Amino acid sequence: MLYNLLYPLHETFSAFNVFRYITFRSIYAALTALAVVLVLGPVVIEYLKRRRIGEKIRSDGPQTHMVKSGTPTMGGLIIIAAVIIPSLLWADIGNGYLWVAVMTTLVFGAIGFYDDYAKLTGLRKGGISGRAKLLLQFTAAFVAVLSIYMIQGGTEALTRVNVPFLKNVKPDFGLFYIPFAMLVIVASANAVNLTDGLDGLAIGPVIISFSAYVVLMYTAGNTKFAAYLNIPYVATAGEMTVFCAAVVGAGLGFLWYNCYPAMVFMGNVGSTALGGVLGTVAIMCKQEVLLALIGGIFVVEAVSVIIQVGWFKYTGKRFFKMAPLHHHFEQLGWPEPQVIVRFWIVSLVLALLSLSTLKLR
Question: What is the average pLDDT value for the chain, to the nearest integer?
Fold first, then answer.
């Protein structure tokens, strides 16, 4: 909004020329998001406490988690507000990708909100059913992918998939790209949701993943960088750098309250929204396959649940001591802060490795 209002005045007031630069607006979007969380955080946490909107700890989980019972949840509402407000404030509101990202965040957040609400109020024990949740998520993902497809004009460039480390391997999925992209978004939403099981465990990798996509979005939207790095050039996608930076800032702010011992949990409303828009961002800059490496922590957490369920159905025994994987390490005797920080370290290494693929081809 500030870009649309102030940049046109740069010919009269040269100082406004600074709004031309995506880097400048991205930095201030991140700082604004951080400030929004720090301001809203205490207010929302106090409100959640008064309404007794607290986390219900599963009885079969680690016994050390029982002290978390009643900790305010649904703090993801703070994150969503802190992402959308700075994005609309600092980005070009005429950019189609921005509105797809904003709407995806809101819709996936609404699905997560309803899931939280149903679980906490007893409307539906355990929240909405898995089948209903997937139906809603795939519907939202279809709208997001179709919107991106229309913005890019349905070109062949959209349906080609780039494979990390392989310079000339770019298979064209054709119309099958749409269900593939939908799967990326839904899988990302649920993987982040499964990772959100310890204080600050999910938000750390989210910050790191979106930091990587700040770089990927900026390079994909710049003709010179895209040509130099031999990556797909996506016209106007560079504006999404501002949005990704806002997520980073919002994540840092939320971590202030969510770090161990957590004062608030993000709930499904936060994890589902962040995961859904992470997958959407990956599709926008044509780095959807690379997301599996950037968000490797989320992938491993999701796969651990799939293995656990499948193995138990087949053998009647558990493959891990407990799933998702972070609980397995807790059962091995790792203190919660140790699990969290080590997962962050792995996430950072994976993000750096992912960025190296821009040159390793």
Answer: 91
121 CB-contact burial (10 Å; exposed 0-12 / middle 13-18 / buried 19+):
exposed
Six token digits for residue 40: 């809203």
Burial class (CB in 10 A: 0-12, 13-18, 19+), 153: exposed
Determine the 3-state secondary structure of 160 from DSSP. Answer: strand
In the predicted structure, residue 40 carries a pLDDT above the cut 70: yes
Whose structure tokens read 């951080």?
Answer: 34
CA distances from 291 to 18, 208, 353 (A): 32, 12, 12
For the record, the structure tokens of 324 come out as 């998702």
Structure tokens at 233: 């050039």
DSSP code of residue 262:
P
Q: Is-contact 105 299, C-beta < 8 A?
A: no
The pair phi, psi for residue 360, each rounded to 5°, is -85, 90
Q: Could you say which DSSP state residue 154 is in?
A: T
Task: Give the Å distances, CA to CA, from 241 to 98, 226, 268, 275.
Answer: 10, 14, 25, 17
* HEC letters along 276-295: HHHHHHHHHCCCCCCHHHHC
Distance of CA 303 to the CA centre of its chain: 18
| 0.85 exceeded by pTM | yes
**pLDDT single digits (tens) 111-143:** 999 999 988 887 777 778 889 999 999 999 999
The domain ranges of the chain are 2-287
Asked if the model's pLDDT at residue 349 lies above 60, the reply is: yes
Catalogue the E-assigned strands of the chain: none
CA distance 242 to 218: 9
d(CA 98, CA 309): 38
The angle subtended at Cα 109 by Cα 123 and Cα 119, nearest 5°, is 20
Burial (0-12, 13-18, 19+ Cβ within 10 Å), 196: buried
Distance CA 171, CA 312 (A): 36
